[in-house]
């Protein structure tokens, strides 16, 4: 067999191998997303080693490979091969990256010829034959993904190349562990309020749109509640101690959530304001009943950090279809109703339609 020239030269040259690892590490550090990082790293590794194509997969929560990105050399006819690579059920994916995912070890085309499945070169695109190498992206004992490199030349995997790929695999795996967890936390924070754990504003709007579509399809109604809470300490604590706003909001959110059905949505709007989405309102006054229940539930003093706080609640209500047909309109009408409820005094609620006529 003939080695891929650039790969062999890089792997057997300590400074060049270190330079490649440094270059990949720099790309990872500058990447804004995991997707960008994988593409840039694969491009760097494949292009530096003389490979014609590089592909990256990530392992999903079910332990299956999910295609992420691909780079190929200009002029390379990669369409047929890429079509099989993007198909998680293809024999090509099962033959090499699938094997690496299962074993957690680097493998090449020659490694899998003895397996009782089609040889990689026999299932590659068209009549063109490819050689390949794949290595796991590992962190600790977990395989987080796989990178595969393809070329039309055959090659031998020597010890120097193996050490280089193992180093690259470790670097990328460590990045995936850190950045993947970060992106997951960012996504979670965007969907849920960090203080209360309730759905955040984007998630509330999305659910509202979905419920409006169902309401129109089923000719049913829904309501949007806009709630304002005011907290007052019954007695000042020793040495001026008082509960933090976050503690109060978290406890208040628990009470609010206990007032609604499992398929209703309570979300934090801003500061000490909340919104509630009530789908499938059978009677026009059902939303008013829920609002009164919320006020009654919030009325008892709230014990937080060894102190007692009274809670004053104001609720504005807007209903579909009476007061609007989309979320921005309903939220605006509920906010107007909230202002009216505040004018009525403490612990009051108001229906938008009742004062807007």
From TrEMBL:
<dbReference type="InterPro" id="IPR043128">
    <property type="entry name" value="Rev_trsase/Diguanyl_cyclase"/>
</dbReference>
<feature type="domain" description="GGDEF">
    <location>
        <begin position="220"/>
        <end position="354"/>
    </location>
</feature>
<dbReference type="InterPro" id="IPR029016">
    <property type="entry name" value="GAF-like_dom_sf"/>
</dbReference>
<dbReference type="InterPro" id="IPR000160">
    <property type="entry name" value="GGDEF_dom"/>
</dbReference>
<dbReference type="Pfam" id="PF00990">
    <property type="entry name" value="GGDEF"/>
</dbReference>
<protein>
    <submittedName>
        <fullName>Diguanylate cyclase (GGDEF)-like protein</fullName>
    </submittedName>
</protein>
<dbReference type="InterPro" id="IPR003018">
    <property type="entry name" value="GAF"/>
</dbReference>
<dbReference type="InterPro" id="IPR029787">
    <property type="entry name" value="Nucleotide_cyclase"/>
</dbReference>
<dbReference type="Pfam" id="PF13185">
    <property type="entry name" value="GAF_2"/>
</dbReference>
<dbReference type="InterPro" id="IPR052155">
    <property type="entry name" value="Biofilm_reg_signaling"/>
</dbReference>
């Amino acid at each position: 067999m003939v080695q891929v020239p650039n790969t062999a030269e890089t792997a057997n040259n300590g400074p060049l191998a270190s330079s490649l690892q440094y270059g990949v590490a720099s790309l990872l550090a500058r990447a804004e997303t995991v997707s960008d990082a994988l593409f840039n790293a694969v491009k760097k590794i494949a292009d530096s080693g003389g490979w014609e194509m590089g592909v990256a997969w990530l392992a999903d929560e079910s332990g299956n490979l999910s295609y992420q990105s691909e780079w190929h050399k200009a002029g390379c006819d990669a369409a047929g091969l890429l079509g099989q690579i993007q198909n998680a059920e293809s024999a090509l994916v099962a033959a090499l990256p699938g094997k690496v995912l299962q074993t957690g070890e680097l493998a090449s085309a020659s490694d899998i010829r003895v397996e009782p499945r089609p040889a990689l070169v026999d299932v590659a695109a068209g009549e063109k034959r490819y050689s390949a190498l794949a290595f796991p992206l590992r962190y600790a004992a977990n395989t987080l993904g796989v990178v595969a490199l393809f070329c039309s030349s055959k090659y031998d995997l020597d010890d120097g190349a193996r050490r280089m790929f193992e180093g690259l695999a470790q670097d990328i795996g460590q990045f995936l562990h850190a950045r993947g967890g970060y992106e997951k936390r960012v996504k979670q924070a965007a969907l849920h309020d960090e203080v209360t754990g309730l759905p955040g504003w984007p998630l509330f709007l999305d659910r509202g749109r979905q419920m409006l579509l169902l309401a129109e399809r089923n000719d049913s109604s829904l309501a949007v509640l806009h709630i304002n809470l005011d907290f007052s300490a019954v007695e000042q604590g020793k040495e001026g101690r008082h509960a933090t706003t976050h503690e109060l909001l978290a406890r208040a959110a628990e009470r609010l959530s206990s007032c609604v059905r499992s398929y209703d949505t309570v979300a934090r709007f801003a500061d000490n304001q909340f919104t509630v989405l009530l789908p499938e309102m059978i009677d026009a006054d059902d939303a008013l009943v829920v609002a009164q229940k919320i006020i009654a539930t919030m009325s008892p003093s709230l014990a937080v950090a060894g102190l007692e706080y009274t809670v004053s609640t104001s609720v504005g209500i807007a209903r579909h279809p009476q007061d609007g047909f989309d979320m921005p309109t309903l939220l605006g009408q509920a906010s107007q109703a909230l202002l009216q409820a505040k004018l009525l005094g403490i612990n009051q609620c108001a229906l938008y339609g009742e004062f807007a006529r």
